[in-house]
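Researcher: Sit down with what I've pasted below and flag anything odd:
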Amino acid sequence: MGELGAFLKVHRVGFDKRDPRQRVRDYRQYFTLQPDDELQRQGARCMDCGIPFCHEGCPLGNLIPEWNDLVYRGKWREAIDQLHATNNFPEFTGRICPAPCESACVLAINDDPVTIEQIEMAIAEHAFANGWVTPNPPARRSGKTVAVVGAGPAGMAVAAELNQCGHTVTVYERDEGPGGLMRFGVPDAKLEKRIIDRRVEILAGEGINFRYNVDIGRHTSAAELHAEHDAVVIAIGSRVSRDLDAPGRNLEGIHFAMDYLYQRNRWVAAQEGRPAPRPAPGTEITACGKRVIVIGGGDTGMDCISNSHREGAESVIMLDVYAELPANGRDPRHPWPLPPKRTATTYALEEGGRRRWGTEVTGFGGRDGKVSHVYSRQVTGTSSRDLTPVPGSEFVLEADLVLLAIGFEHPEHEGVVEQFGLELDRFGNIRTRQTYRTSEAGVYACGDARIGQSLIVTAISEGRKCARIVNRDLGGSPMDADREMLAVGAWSGEADRTLRHEAEAAGTVRPWEEFFSGPGTRPE
């Protein structure tokens, strides 16, 4: 794989980023790919590991060394075939996935990892530019119909896979366009929405029917949906934002981050002439000219910082409960090959703003019913679960807008989940007993609605695996994806577990409990 010893003489070269002072003036993608010759050099760094930990780091089990080698050799056409064998949407993951594969790269132990994400995006862009990605409708139709509720990455993946099996698939989306949080939660600076639309055109050309502005549970009942289709897949994401129970929370000017990002992404869409509803009078959330406080240090919080800069905020401060990273930037709490929870900097912080580490918010102050202050203190601990206040460290920050970006609780229960009467797990997610089958016959769940808040790459993996179960229940033949994975011997441990749980549910193998006993020993 790659060039023998290239990792010793070729240094990592990442995406080419636009000048932060310039890119904050627009909403275009803030980074571009390196030239092809440089990408081939970067592919050469992949060093033929005895055990490619990048496979384990990637929830999709992407064939990373294989397509790195193909890029090194200039075989772009073959590379997209290898990439599509495990990933339906590499143009998405190549842009907004946090790349757990790179964290697991063996080079990352004491060097910079292979630029896997950039090579992935480059393969996808080559494929689209050369006309290699075209609609490929199935040769036959099964006569079975499937409803997919939710057009996020999990819903799009399960729809794509089931459509290739010959089933007639309709995707129902309550918002005005596809993509879920990729469209409404991720700024165009990271993922321009034309990238989503480009892929959806391919899916529609393959026979998938997309219906927007249809809220299942309100416009159409769950019972009606079930009666119209042979199977229903719920892929509605984890949309209930985690709140902050602190004095003054009800003051005007304190909002969930996703409410803000939804509005700003729709504003950008409207400027480009795309359909987008306007906020009701008096409900607009804007950072223009304001002192902004972002609570939470993850990707959503960074996206809030990015948007605030582009709106022209007076100042932006992020409050993160995580302890400051050591000088070398490596977090000892998440050693190799685990992905880091925080990084030394991000695209948003490069554009401005300030992050205060080890900070907990204790309350809010206001004037005339509007937020004006955020009360905070320094804390120690490894996460939000074990914080210890530092005596005498209290401080106050002025604020005109506060955005809560501290994660999500579980999927919304009102509507389709309640109407189906689905069982929930202890976290409020849809219970599926690891076979993607819910407590209601013929109804399945995948993605964040099933496992809780996670990554885009995990959502796509969830959709692909769920499709295998639905297809078998509908009497379909083994999927092409199954045959391809078997042919290359690339079943991931996660895929093995999925098939194992399916066989267990059918009673054809002994259950896990007969092999394992005691708390914490059951494979997850």
